[in-house]
Design brief:
The complex is a heterodimer of chains A (166) and B (358). Chain A has one domain (12-165). Chain A has 166 residues and is mainly α. Chain A is built from two helices and no strands. With 358 residues, chain B is mainly alpha-helical. Chain B folds into two domains: 65-133, no CATH class; 138-354, no CATH class. In chain B, a hairpin with a 6-residue loop joins strand 1 and strand 2. The chains are: A mainly alpha (166), B mainly alpha (358). Chain A binds chain B through residues 2, 4-17, 19-20, 22-24, 26-28, 30-32, 34-36, 38-39, 41-42, 45, and chain B through 41, 44-46, 67, 103, 105, 123, 130-135, 137-138, 141-142, 145, 148-149, 152-153, 155-156, 159-160, 163, 170, 174, 177-178, 181, 198-200, 202-204, 206-207, 230-233, 235-237, 240, 291, 295.
Chain lengths: 166, 358
């Protein structure tokens, strides 16, 4: 133990202990506590910020899924409405068609009837016309036939001849 | 790049001063072999004055206060009153006592004597007063205390005024502080108890580290004191670890010391002295590790410089300077590493004392 290197000196022991304890007290009060408190505070604030960001993200995701739902609902409703409209249209068209058909039939029937009437009238007219013409023709022919005595005689002869044969 | 160049220049400059210093201790005769041990020993030992440059009576040294508690009361004077004498020749008379400095130890001369009472083996029979002088190491320690305080007070100040990212010195120190807190204290002591040991561990870590670094600065008048390579320094720190460990030991801890659970009774009895030795051995190892590592670093650097004088050739510096540079850079790493190891093991020992076993 005579080696001065490994013989602790009382002065150095005293001063080291004093300096270390004073340093520890000073640093604890003025350095470690404020630094660690600040770091801790920062850590909590970062954590809070991260948490709130996470919350916001979740909220956004929720909103997004809500939107998606709404959109889907709207789309379904639109489809429904379209389908309904198409049905109504079809109905209206079909009804219109039936009505039109009926109307057309009616018109056609009325037309046909009036044609019949016209035809009958025309026929009657024609018949009358033909009778008048026939009489006129017969009159002319008779006038012509009976204009001379020869011809009258020939006719009488003919008639007489026919009677004889009978 | 510029800072590297400056560092190298300073190192080379200080090497030349180291050389200057060792030169004066070299024997004047060229035939005699140069013995590097005395200057190295002088360099790594404590001293009452801060030697800067030169030797003998021409030496330039920073005088430091000598504080003695003698039989005749408190004695205070500046170390310059010894006139660089460490051979016990120059007598300083105070409070009716004749004081001499013999190999940086203060002795009281017996009445009527002019010289120390030294026997054939070199042992001094004279009385040593209680010496609480501000020695080179104490002064260096005060400087490093000042630096640690400045650094961390400045760092702490930058946290004031709301939450913000660390800036300046705080951004460099904060990861280290958090490393000590989370990776040393929390890991080894556990969530429940670590908080109350954090101030000690942080202070120990930074105080040891800064002292280690200061010891590596060879610029004269600045530092270069082998503070952490002083056994008294490491003894105090390891004693604090010892006290913290055992004063905070819980029931489980003491049960493991005195009545090892799970072992047969004869083994339990056998283990008691072993565990009791272990209580002392753990901090003892802490003390020796830091002391030996730092002292060894200083010795290696000085030995490499001494090569120039052993070979008495300037060309030797071509080998000595790069090697010294290399070892000095390595010592920068060791300075941090030893601070880490000391703190780590302290935390481990404290952790074993407060841990709750299942």
């Amino acid at each position: 133990m005579d080696n001065p290197l490994v013989t602790p000196e009382i002065g150095m022991l005293f001063w080291t202990a004093l300096v270390f304890i004073i340093l520890m007290l000073l640093l604890t009060k003025y350095a470690w506590k404020p630094i660690l408190a600040a770091v801790k505070e920062r850590e909590t604030s970062i954590e809070e910020a991260l948490n709130s960001a996470e919350d916001a993200k979740r909220e956004i995701a929720e909103l997004k899924s809500n939107n998606e739902d709404l959109l889907n609902e709207a789309r379904a409703e639109r489809d429904e409405m379209l389908k309904e409209a198409r049905g109504i249209k079809d109905n209206i068209v079909a009804e219109a068609k039936t009505t039109a058909n009926q109307e057309a039939e009616k018109i056609v029937a009325a037309a046909r009837e009036s044609i019949q009437h016209e035809k009958m009238a025309a026929i009657t007219e024609l018949k009358n016309q033909v009778a008048v013409l026939s009489i006129e023709i017969a009159e002319k022919i008779l006038k012509d036939e009976l204009s001379s005595a020869d011809k009258q005689k020939a006719i009488i002869d003919n008639v007489v001849k026919d009677i004889n044969l009978n | 790049m510029r800072s590297i160049l400056i560092t190298i220049t300073i190192m080379l400059f200080s090497l030349s001063l180291l050389a200057n210093e060792t030169e004066h201790k070299a024997v004047s005769s060229k035939d005699e072999k140069y013995n590097p041990v005395p200057p190295i020993m002088e360099h790594i030992s404590d001293a009452h004055s801060w030697h800067i440059v030169g030797g003998g009576h021409d030496a330039i040294a920073l005088p430091l206060p000598v504080i003695l508690w003698t039989d005749n009361g408190l004695v205070v004077f500046m170390s310059s009153e010894f006139h660089h004498d460490t051979k016990g020749h120059h007598i300083v008379a105070r409070n009716g006592l004749n004081l001499v400095n013999y190999h940086e130890k203060i002795y009281v001369l017996n009445d009527g004597e002019e010289h120390l009472d030294i026997d054939e083996e070199g042992k001094v029979a004279n009385v040593r007063p209680i010496d609480i002088s501000i020695t080179k190491n104490v002064f260096g320690m005060l400087i490093s205390m000042l630096i640690v305080c400045l650094v961390f007070f400045k760092a702490a100040r930058s946290y004031k005024g709301g939450i913000k990212a660390p800036k300046g010195i705080a951004s460099f120190m904060e990861p280290l502080v958090l490393f000590v807190k989370d990776d040393i204290a929390l890991q080894n002591i556990g969530e429940k108890h670590h908080r109350r040991f954090v101030p000690f561990l942080l202070t120990a870590f930074f105080f040891i580290w800064f002292n280690n670094l200061l010891g590596l600065i060879p610029i004269p008048g600045f530092s270069g004191a082998n503070i952490t390579g002083n056994i008294a320094f490491t003894l105090v720190l390891s004693t604090i670890t010892l006290l913290l460990t055992n004063l905070n030991g819980n029931k489980q801890y003491w049960k493991h010391v005195f009545w090892m659970p799970g072992a047969p009774v004869p083994i339990k009895i056998f283990l008691i002295p072993i565990e009791l030795i272990g209580l002392i051995a753990k901090p003892f190892a802490l003390m020796i590790r830091l002391f030996a590592n730092m002292t060894a670093g200083h010795i290696v650097v000085l030995s490499l410089v001494s090569l120039i004088f052993i070979f008495k050739s300037i060309y030797m510096s071509a080998v000595a300077v790069p090697f010294t540079l290399f070892i000095s850079v390595l010592e920068l790493l060791v300075a941090l590493l030893q601070a880490y190891v000391f703190t780590m093991l302290s935390a481990l020992f404290i952790g074993s004392a407060v841990a709750e076993h299942h």
